[in-house]
Amino acid sequence: MSALFQYLFPQNFRTKGYCSILFLTILSPLLASKPNKLTFYCTNSYDYKDPNIACSNRAQPRGQRHLATSGQDDYLQGEKLVQRLKIPISYYWRNQSFRHAAMTSSKEWQVYFFIDRRLNPRATINLEYSGGSLEEGISALAHTISGESAPLHGLVYIGPKEMAHKISTLIFLRKQEISKEPLTSLSIQQKNSLRRREKESWPILSTPQAILERIAKKQGFTVTNLDLVPHDLYPETDLPPLDFTEKFSLLLAGFDLTYQLNPAQKSITLKPIPSPLTLTKTFSLRQKNSPQEIASFLKETYPLATIELNGKKIRVTSTLYTLDKVGAHLSDLAKQENGKITQQNSSSNETARKTYTITVKNQPALAVLGAITSQTDYTYTIAPKLQPLLQTHISFSAEKANLDRLLRETLSPVGLRFHLDGKKIVITR
User: Domain limits of the chain?
Assistant: First the structure.
């Protein structure tokens, strides 16, 4: 009974927000019949004990604490997942828990969500999203609980923004190490075993220490310092097919940890994630805009990246998450006849003229600001000393409001002002 109480009401839920991992499944027939655009509306209040939920004018089964069920094999992975994330979607959530919104979304989209233990899936959300890509829609959903999303090979990770930007880099570096010194002592069979994609599951009330220990044991390793992982209790879970590196990295991400394989000792050592965590990639520029103009644009768009121009090549040092976005940005730019930078100004003006409908109920201003920027081509800047003000919770409703009004409704209640500088929202006091 004591263990059950800890699971239902963990200490970190009573103090700073419930932390858990949420895994979502079940293939929706809707996707097979309407693959080009997805729209659904759901306004029922969320009762955790209710075995059914009415949504999109039809009843859908839900409510299992064991969320990964028979549809597990139908999750999209690899290139299929990449293509699914590009489709346009619309959704509308009113007075729903994030858990329910994410669960229904996963069913509709065939996308597996891995929710970081530090986020609160029981938070009530109100959000309308229309016309953008599925990837942007998942990002907007993540922002409602002060999170960010990061697509990986077989799922979408949703967690704190900093970790969302790091997780793909962590997995990439750990996978590289399997082929490099000092791990060359691994046999071909061991390397193939580490790279094999397999399902993983654990029962209700499992601890992260036990899960990590079991995954390591399957590969013939022991974890030497599991005491670095604090106690927690997880729901019954079935993961989709993932390799060892992905499973271990995702589980450790919730504790800001990574690991090192020691083949000679057949052990795994847990360690803090190093900082900075970056990769470097060189892009060849084929756009009509001048290289200097493109470099200046990228520096403004990705202020945390190191960008160096060398003739018609540009060298970018950042996380893999950012490198992927830079690559997509440059690819889109190359496809446009007149160049992205000229188009961007036109797009920004177009965005400013668009109208939006949104209902916010007791959400941090930071989450609302993140949802706004995820649906536009704007970024924002704010002085570090003002950032704590964005943690203030706000509530408002706006119907057919333009960008200017949305920003005023979001920032004025917390004592902040703004002005637009091109496609940048400059926030001041």
Answer: 1-274, 279-348, 354-428
Q: Are 68 and 62 in contact (CB under 8 A)?
A: no
Q: Is the entire prediction scored with pTM above 0.70? A: no
Q: How far apart are CA 343 and CA 385, in angstroms?
A: 34
CATH number (3.40.1620, 3.30.420, 2.30.110, 3.30.1370) of 279-348 reads 3.30.1370
Q: Spelled out in words, what is the top-level CATH class assigned to the domain 354-428?
A: alpha beta
As a whole number of angstroms, the distance between CA 405 and CA 423 comes to 16
- For Cα atoms 208, 213, 218, give the angle at the middle one, nearest 5 degrees: 130
Mean pLDDT (whole number) for 17-44 = 36
Phi, psi (5° rounding) for residue 240? -70, 175
pLDDT by residue (tens digit) across 98-129? 999 998 888 889 999 999 999 999 999 888 77
Query: 319 Cβ partners below 8 Å, 6+ apart?
Result: 165, 166, 168, 169, 277, 278, 279
In tens, the pLDDT along 319-334 reads 998 898 888 878 877 6
**Which of 49-63, 135-149, 208-222, 250-264 has the least mean pLDDT?**
49-63
Cβ proximity of 252 and 212 under 8 Å: yes
Q: Which pair of tokens denotes residue 193?
A: 């075993």
Alpha helices in 110-228 (DSSP H): 134-143, 161-177, 188-195, 208-218
Instruction: For residue 169, name the pLDDT band (cuts at 50, 70, 90).
Output: very high
